[in-house]
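It is worth pausing here to work through a concrete case rather than discussing structure prediction in the abstract. The textbook approach is simple: state the sequence, then state the predicted structure, then interpret. We follow exactly that order.
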Amino acid sequence: MAKITRKPAQRKAAVPKKKAKAAKPRPAKKSAPAKKSLKAIKPWTPAEIQEVFSRFRKANPEPKGELEHLNPFTLLVAVVLSAQATDAGVNKATRELFKVADTPQKMLDLGEERLRDYIKTIGLYRTKARNVIALSAKLLSDFGGEVPRTRAEIESLPGAGRKTANVVLNMAFGEHTMAVDTHVFRVGNRTGLAPGKTPLDVELGLEKVIPAEFMLHAHHWLILHGRYTCLARKPRCDVCLINDLCRWPEKTV
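Step two, the predicted structure:
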């Protein structure tokens, strides 16, 4: 039988690859000018702080909180309800509520389901109704139906945190506490009065620099200033009482 010889397979010639086009260098992005850190700004002097709060006092000698209430208990309830809600929205709901439930016992008698009907226009009303009933029960069982007068005891109540305790201690009992809400937090940081990453940082910073003679009303002046003048998006620097002293790098005057 004849031997078959096979020819070696021919390799295909390699096709030269096309050279990739060199990528054109992209123009460098212009970086936004760095904002000046508040920590790098010259701290307020005691004389400047005295001047700021003297102006606030002259313009509004007896500032009042905007949450409507009848007694320490209704104040406590109103502050608990005000979390993530406006004072105006809370007042609208509590005007009728406090006519029928202005004590812990009356609130318990009203019951959670009926309470929800009164406050259903407020955000998180189901959780808040549960907390208000629970704190009413705790006030009766642990504190003789009275709102306690220490921060730790108030913070032990369902739905009440440090800010709630500070508001109640200040407004109901005249304590020199500093309640830091979103407005006070913004003013403390923006003006450079008390820069801080947390509400507690700002609270402790303000307590450290504000003279005792102003502390009773200080948190109301700062809240009102943040709510009506030092607004979050478009601060009204042109009508600000303290625009000449404010450290904010972006102020418009």
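Step three, interpretation. The chain has two domains: 41-64+178-239, 72-173. Residues 72-173 form a domain with the Endonuclease III; domain 1 fold (CATH 1.10.340.30).
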